[in-house]
Design a protein that fits this description.
This is NADPH:quinone oxidoreductase family protein. By secondary structure, the chain is α/β, with parallel strands linked by helices. Helices cover 30% and strands 27% of the residues. The protein has 2 domains: 174 residues, Medium-chain alcohol dehydrogenases, catalytic domain (Quinone Oxidoreductase, Chain A, domain 1); 124 residues, Rossmann fold, CATH 3.40.50. The strands form 3 sheets. Strands 3, 5, 6, 7, 8, 15 and 16 form a 7-stranded mixed sheet that branches.
Length: 323
């Protein structure tokens, strides 16, 4: 038996229960991982509330780090005792779990379990956003919404490391200051600033080539209007709620714009891509170019409170659960 955070129906944080569940032995191609730390992300909220449908009953969570306890038949990628981390695999809010071996990666010795659990999903997301969805070049200016969040703080640092200029947005001056300390050249308060006007002013009327938008409903129109002709809106989250239906003619009206809705699971579906993405993430963290800020820690049994705080935008940086 192991302790886990489960949900049998979609709904608010109250549907999360701290329960005992059985853990079987790993089958062919699988490993048993004993968690040392587990990450908390908005995708966990979307799955819990039903915005992203998952099969019920389910164990919540998508990211963790720990030690391999046992391996199934045919597993050669890792062995018992290895320190591993992963992201994008439902079922992480627990003490122990079974997971496909090809979804975990070996951790560098210099990265701790808490750091790994906090950064895998967010860091891999940043990697594909800024290196693959739109490969940001030195000297380019980009807009990144929710710049003081877990994804945003990693993105601000990584983009600065690449020589890009970041216009961040956040919901308070305190959060804007946090984003600026982590590499945003400018951070706009979406509660008080006219985002589109300020972006146009900063870019001398041109707009930016790409906007990264993990906020969703509240920022979609603003994001489109910050783009220059042929610009790309990367919509990768729904922190403020899902997008309403989109009239694609707006893309032509605002300058032959592009719109994409990428996911980590697509970018990391192939083992070779996952290894390359994780390697690049580990490199920028080990080098010190990107520091992972863990600003909230909760015991595993307090996962519901972690969700409440995340949804209320009370958190900054990364949040983890400790089994």
């Amino acid at each position: 038996m192991t302790k886990a955070i489960c949900f049998k129906e979609f709904g608010g944080p109250e549907v999360l229960t701290f329960s005992d569940i059985e853990v079987r032995s790993p089958g062919p191609g699988e490993v048993l991982v004993s968690h040392k730390a587990v990450g908390v992300n908005f995708v966990d909220v979307y799955q819990r509330n039903g915005l992203y449908k998952v099969a019920l009953p389910a164990v919540a969570g998508n990211e963790g780090a720990g030690v391999v306890e046992a391996v199934g038949e045919g597993v050669t990628l890792v062995k018992p005792g290895d320190r591993v981390a992963y992201a994008g695999a439902l079922g992480s809010y627990c003490q122990k779990r079974i997971i496909p071996a090809d979804r975990v990666v070996l951790m560098p010795d210099s990265i701790g379990f808490e750091q790994a659990a906090a950064m895998m999903l967010k860091g891999l997301t940043v990697q594909y956003l800024i290196r693959r969805t739109y490969r940001v070049q030195q000297g380019e200016t980009v807009v990144f919404h929710a710049a003081a969040g877990g994804v945003g703080l990693i993105a601000c640092q990584w983009l600065k490391h690449l020589g890009a200029r970041v216009i961040g947005t956040a919901g308070s001056e305190e959060k804007c200051e946090l984003a600026r300390r982590h590499g945003a050249e400018t951070c706009l308060n979406y509660r008080t600033d006219s985002i589109v006007e300020r972006v146009r002013e900063i870019t001398k009327g041109e707009g930016v080539p790409v906007v990264y938008d993990g906020v969703g409903k509240d920022t979609f129109d603003t994001s489109l209007r910050c783009l220059r002709p042929f610009g790309l809106l990367v919509s990768f989250g729904n922190a403020s709620g899902p997008l309403p239906p989109v009239d694609l003619s707006i893309l032509s009206q605002l300058g032959s714009l592009y719109l994409t809705r990428p996911t980590l699971n697509t970018y990391a579906a192939k083992r070779a891509d996952l290894e390359q993405m994780a390697g690049e993430l580990f490199q920028v963290v080990v080098s010190g170019a990107v520091k992972v800020e863990i600003n909230q820690r909760y015991p595993l049994q307090d996962a519901a409170q972690a969700h409440r705080d995340l949804e209320a935008r009370k958190t900054t940086g990364c949040t983890i659960l400790l089994p």
